[in-house]
Amino acid sequence: MRLGAARFVAGETLKEAIEQVRLLNNDGLVVTLDHLGEFVFDEHEAFASTQACLDVLDAIHASGVKSNMSLKMTSLGLDLSKELCMKHMRMILDKARELDNFVRIDMEDYAHIDVTMEIFDELKREYGKHVGLVIQAYLYRTVDDMKRLETEFESMNLRLVKGAYLESPKVAYPDMADVNKNYLKIIEMHLLSGHYSAVASHDDMVINWTKEFVKKHNIPNEQFEFQMLYGVRPETQRELVREGYTMRVYVPYGNDWYGYFSRRIAERPANALFIIKNMFRK
């Protein structure tokens, strides 16, 4: 596990992570830093996670690297109370606004989606361009959620993913062919809406389809970016930069690397196969 994690996690300390971000920036890549952690069980842990996020924003600003930040609201006390999570989110977004940076709220499992949407709506109205959201293609509700967000807000920066949690067929497409079809549908929908799209995929089919779609519809490169995980297909990431696309790397770091890997594999065993396959891909 440790050998595998070393490729996909940029160290245990923020200093190590910033060094890796600088190296990625040198190759033309931009970054999203993600301090590992979720599902805290008391207010002390939730505040510690909040402070770690504030430290990330300060370190990005002080170092001058090109990076924003993502977070999971369960790490900020969402399961303890919505009010506690909101308090911590406002602390983080106050800092992001002060430093003119951006925070991406990760979407978690289906049990958290309604409260995540409620919090995001409120924070989006307060903090505007400084906050964005992740949208998962494998959920039946996704298209309706996107239509509402695109209509209610003047600008909507969404990270579009297939989804990595193991969900009930009552709420999510069980067949990967249907997930892929819906994924292309929401990419098309968001690109045509004029909002900013982050296409997060390691799938050549998705990447090539997106390239052809934006050319066909004269969508400027400034309106979208590709995203991949740290350590996954690094040569392909750099090739996309050479082709003139914005390529953002999601860089996790922290001492919860073991929990991070264990939870991802427990949630969906196919994630283990994904990790193993990508240890040998370019």
TrEMBL record:
InterPro entries noted in UniProt: FAD-linked_oxidoreductase-like, PRODH_bac_arc, Proline_DH_dom, Proline_oxidase
Highest taxon of the lineage: Bacteria
Which EC main class describes this enzyme? Answer: oxidoreductase
Q: Could you tell me what the cofactor note in this record states?
A: Binds 1 FAD per subunit.
- What is its pathway? Amino-acid degradation; L-proline degradation into L-glutamate; L-glutamate from L-proline: step 1/2
Q: Which reaction does it catalyse?
A: L-proline + a quinone = (S)-1-pyrroline-5-carboxylate + a quinol + H(+)
Q: Which cofactor does it need?
A: FAD
Q: Where does FAD bind?
A: M107, Q136, K162, G163, A164, S201, H202
Q: Which UniProt keywords apply?
A: FAD, Flavoprotein, Nucleotide-binding, Oxidoreductase, Proline metabolism
Instruction: List the protein's name.
Output: proline dehydrogenase
Q: Which organism does this record belong to?
A: Tumebacillus avium
Q: What taxonomic ancestry is recorded? A: Bacteria, Bacillati, Bacillota, Bacilli, Bacillales
